[in-house]
Write a structure and sequence with these properties.
Helices cover 73% and strands 0% of the residues. The protein is mainly α. It has one domain. The two termini are 25 Å apart.
């Protein structure tokens, strides 16, 4: 995602915990949608250029440096998804 999601209006009668959970789900769904779109683009471009196919993707083993980068990206995503809970703890 390019930036934080805009805060939506609360739903009348909804508990604060439900509101935070909905915000988490929305953030995760947005991240997944963007990731799937980008992955599809990369796969389509690679196939069109004859660079690699689906079997090469499945057989790929990341280097330790690539694994470390993926771990960093994973931690950032988890932090973003759980931000509504962290924000409520300080409130």
């Amino acid at each position: 995602m390019t930036g934080p999601a805009r805060r939506r209006l609360p739903i009348p009668g909804q508990m604060p915990e439900e509101d935070r959970l909905l915000a988490m789900i929305a953030a995760l769904a947005a991240e997944l949608a963007v990731t799937r779109e980008r992955l599809d683009t990369v796969e389509q471009l690679a196939a069109a250029a004859g660079l690699f196919d689906a079997a090469a993707i499945e057989a790929f083993v990341p280097t330790p440096q690539q694994t470390a980068r993926r771990d960093t990206l994973r931690r950032r995503l988890i932090s973003r998804v759980f931000r509504p809970l962290k924000t409520s703890e300080g409130a």
